[in-house]
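TEACHING EXERCISE
Course module: macromolecular assemblies
Task: Read the component lines below, then compare them to the predicted structure of the full complex.
Student: A.B.
Group: 4
Components provided:
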Amino acid sequence: MDLLWEIVQDKYNSRENRKYETLFTLANGYKGLRGALEFSKLGERGNFIAGIFDKNTAQVTEIVNCQDILGFNLYIEEELVDLDICEILNFTRKLNMKEGILSFQFEIKTPKGKIIKVASERFVSRNNVHRWAAKYLITPINFNGKILIENIIDGTITNNTLDPINTTKHFNVEELIDLKPGIALITSTIDKKIKIMEGTSLIGLNEEGNFLKERKFNKFGEKVRELYQIFAVKDNEYTIYKLGATYTSRDINCSIKEAFEKELKDFIYDGYEKEKDAHIKIWEKIWTNIDIKIKGDDLAQQGIRFNLFHLSSSAYEGDDKISIAAKGLHGEGYKGHVFWDTETFMLPFFIYTSPETAKALLMYRYNTLEGARKNAMLNGFKGAQFPWESADEGVEVTPKWGIDYLGNPVRIWTGDEEFHINSDITFAIWEYYRATNDEDFLKNYGLEIFLDTAKFWQSRVEYNKLKDRYEINNVIGPDEFHEHVNNNVYTNYLAKWSIKKSLELVEWIKNKDMSFFNNICIKLGLNNEDFKIWQDIQEKMYIPKSKDGRIIEQFEGYFDLKYIKITEYDENGMPVWPKDVELDKLGETQLIKQPDVIMLMLMLREEFDEDVRRENYKYYEERTMHKSSLSPSMYSIMGLSVGDSNNAYRYFIKAIMTDLNDNQGNTELGIHAANTGGAWQSVVFGFGGLSVDKDQRLNFNPWIPKQWNELSFNINWRKNIIKVTIKEDEVLFEASEPVEILVYNKCCKLEKDKVLSVKR
Amino acid sequence: MDLLWEIVQDKYNSRENRKYETLFTLANGYKGLRGALEFSKLGERGNFIAGIFDKNTAQVTEIVNCQDILGFNLYIEEELVDLDICEILNFTRKLNMKEGILSFQFEIKTPKGKIIKVASERFVSRNNVHRWAAKYLITPINFNGKILIENIIDGTITNNTLDPINTTKHFNVEELIDLKPGIALITSTIDKKIKIMEGTSLIGLNEEGNFLKERKFNKFGEKVRELYQIFAVKDNEYTIYKLGATYTSRDINCSIKEAFEKELKDFIYDGYEKEKDAHIKIWEKIWTNIDIKIKGDDLAQQGIRFNLFHLSSSAYEGDDKISIAAKGLHGEGYKGHVFWDTETFMLPFFIYTSPETAKALLMYRYNTLEGARKNAMLNGFKGAQFPWESADEGVEVTPKWGIDYLGNPVRIWTGDEEFHINSDITFAIWEYYRATNDEDFLKNYGLEIFLDTAKFWQSRVEYNKLKDRYEINNVIGPDEFHEHVNNNVYTNYLAKWSIKKSLELVEWIKNKDMSFFNNICIKLGLNNEDFKIWQDIQEKMYIPKSKDGRIIEQFEGYFDLKYIKITEYDENGMPVWPKDVELDKLGETQLIKQPDVIMLMLMLREEFDEDVRRENYKYYEERTMHKSSLSPSMYSIMGLSVGDSNNAYRYFIKAIMTDLNDNQGNTELGIHAANTGGAWQSVVFGFGGLSVDKDQRLNFNPWIPKQWNELSFNINWRKNIIKVTIKEDEVLFEASEPVEILVYNKCCKLEKDKVLSVKR
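Instructor-supplied answer key:
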């Protein structure tokens, strides 16, 4: 196996279990199964099904950690095969990213001296999201004897076991079922009574046929199990397949029992290997679209694939009522909530590689518009106000209280003040439309979001009569060190942009389909009076600037704050808190958590000339603490766009290694999903130098680090697959359809399936 | 603390958790709480309530492992204080046998570097069996910060977790209750719906008063918890009391909720220290009756107390429908079943130190007579046939299948064939009556057992016309290596004895209370015809002997079996399987598991003269594998009674160290309760040389090993407390009432409260 496609764990240490559970999570957009080891009780099992949320007694609505389906125990006589009790003779675990398969192999010696070899692989099918499976190869090394094989589904799982104050059980166990053979467990969430049926069945085949004969079935409270006994012979290998199926009442309207039973029956009929092959074929197809090849830098190659693998695993096109959580389907961190992370950091990857999935993710926002309207109403505004943190309904689910850097309880204001999410979403719709020309989506779904958020902004902005300008006060921008600020540029600028774009869309739809326009005005309660006001707002929106107009002031008064020089950097080149900083008074300094003005300039690059971008980049970079995984990748892109390639590689490596090196210290809580998208952007928008200009043309300004021999990737531009290969002294392009692009600001025409070389 | 009163564990090793859980079990006859450490998840929690049995899907009815009440977690910030995860800086655990208190102290360092000291003590009250409590002293050593304190009751417990095939859950969780503060959990057994209510409450007191203020209550499926947060200051000690109460629907007819709530409320009102003091006072009283003092041999002193402690803890006088299981209230071994172990090995201790408890234990047999009658009926016999293994009803609960020494499934015949239990019980009744003169018991309860088992024997014996004798064929005697044997002497002899004694009792009751006699004859369906047959049976019962009549043949044909010489001994001086032995064909050899003929001669010593006893002792000892913990102590007694003091000390040490050294390898399953009684017998009947002669007089023939300076103990003989002190060259006696005894076969008169010295 090609090491560049693998993540390897070659030593077992129970203290690292939680981290590896995240790194080795397998997901298919529908379901995420943390990479827990069957043979250790230490760690944090996680079985998440996208869209299954519950509040019960928790602080806020959160993704439900469902019944655990990984339960698979081996007993030699009565001794449990347990990595934390037995002596480990050898151990390896591998994530094969090319095929989406997690495998391990170990040999252990029990306290009574029995040696057994266990090899296993597992996949969560991308061919059929309702299926997952594992295979176990068991070999007694130094004994003949009885081995017990136990298949368990555990309904005692709670959320937040690492946070004892907030530990919550989000479901009741409804039914323990004997599938004869096989077991199933139906749970039902507390609030919405969503039913979740998980079931598994073991198949043991060798040349004698089925060797799993002596079966015992039991119910233990909230656990259900089946147990087999085999009499194993030294050096013989016993192969056991475990096939699993999942159905929830979110998936279908009819009986989940019927759907589940058919699924598992069909799966058993198809067999493990057939489903595995189909799963691998899907991954092959996915990799054709998403892979990034970096020659000459194995770390970068392996690292970028790790990020692409998990980002791709986190979504699928089959459900338009779910989106990607800040921690993917990989852990309970941020409670499974959806942030601007999805639209701003992850979506570009899907737009340019898997537009159907991008559309489904945007449809999630459309399908949660009712919640957004509720938020606006509850806060005294009009239209639709998207929540800073979103779960299944679109209502605000940001916790009101958290813990600050010093461990003190602190009021969290983001849910009250971080309004920019509304423009982040409309910007993402625009970005999607620009790259796909999906007029149907724009007309039927995107437009309504544009108009209803414009209506929200209309109610939210404050008119300053004295200065004849519109202001947005008391907000939080992307830089969350500063709360309750007035006229954050990122917020104001994107609100202005979004309103302006809404007005353009009004003209567009009027021309296209007047009766549709009339209908939507009736639906949203809009008329020409509103559009006039929008026009006024977008013209007079206040954008604070420095006196010379070159440096944009992050918000009103930012320039007056205390400047603190960052002087020390950690071993990863990341800033260390300056000594004189008071962590509970960061708001009084110019230190920022992550790009804010720079973020704006990345999104609306065409509206800021290169010199302005360069000066702002320089100014803000030296004030940035990078206390978000969203930060480094963005700086790498902006740096490259203004000709500063000094830090780009360092930032890029920092980004792709965020989880592999656990450099935020919380990988155990789930993958840094936004960062995985940032990593992709860092390659395509940064090193690939891709941007879209005012004329909606693709621009490429590629640059690659010296140590790279070659960088290549594909993008999907309006169904045209463009392959980009950047070499030391040339850049090659190949498109599936003719297209005009700009390379290093020169216009080039790509002909269908013909390679074009541009000298660097 | 006096080391002779303590059992100390000075090193933590998770692999020893299960063993120490047994050694450190605290029990009060009503309830047994395994000595699990709150701060480790490894091991086998055990909370047993005497008399609570259930079958459900298990092989046979078994003692229920009830909901776990020990749950007490500490989190420093969010880090769990767990001995298996943290670095252990120091650790000690102690069982204070004098006071019945288990304590520990440790300092650990969490993965994040926080050091905390925790000291704790725990008791299961002997003052009020419904109460138990723990105290925790918590000191942050190197930090100030938040500590979470979690009190949990866990209703997910199953039986037989170490035996996965037989894992069974014996109760449903009925109710999770918030006591505000405090938590409770009501379960209900599967078969008989016995309700069990367990509840606990935390109290945190320091100079500021109650410091447990921020409370959170949760239900997690089958677990209930309360959580407190405290902000702890470095070097300050925080004292938390945990008070617990237990009630079951076996205990009372009215609402267990009311009884429980009153109990816990009263306990909280009384406070921890008051109950602890009362508990210690009871233990002081108990020790006055039961203590054995051995001067000059610390190992023997500590070891004998360990055995007395656990034996005394296993029973109390307050419930006459329960008895002591083979593993006490200390583990799930032998499924909580009651064997001949109680009557034959443990009861003498209670008869001579705590006659009220002895009576309650015998009443258990009376109260299960209906079950015994069922057994007889089902097996085609008459009268009452006591079960080889007994649970709550007296019906036979011996499993039909088990595992042999080679790990193969094997049919267990003891429940079908080990009939001697019936005479073991009547012998025990006689022994009790002889030592207590409790005529009320003999008349109202004992008599009925004698008569109804005699009726059973009447139907069970086979008359051999040819030889004009009665035989009992196809049986198992105490030596279980030999099954389906004919005319096992132990069985036949004691059956004969029991029938003869029954006839004597018939005469006795006729003289005493003719109408009572008539009534019992009506009740049991007896008349003079039966008594005539009994007379015939007891006269003509076949007792096989060697040709010269000196060596009793264990059963018919035993002498013809293969003699195998035992040549090797392990490090404890115990025999090792001879090399040419086939472990599945032990029945074809003369090797025996444990004393059988010798057992008989110990029980009916007065019927065999010393020479016969000596010859049989010599003959059988060299054929005994001691594959039962019941074996060594009995050989030590018989050896001493025939003047062989060579092995007595070795056997004695072997007996008292059975669990402390885990020399049967299964201490984790519970205490070897019969052996604890055997240890007492070994001292009193062996070294003390106590026997009762045909004239019902106490005989003493004391002998002590050279290394002992002094041995002393008390016995209760018909309410007369006789203190015996054996020194190097004299034996001292002191009695609370005048009595005539024989010392070294010489008659001595003891005057009230006057010390009598007899030269050795």
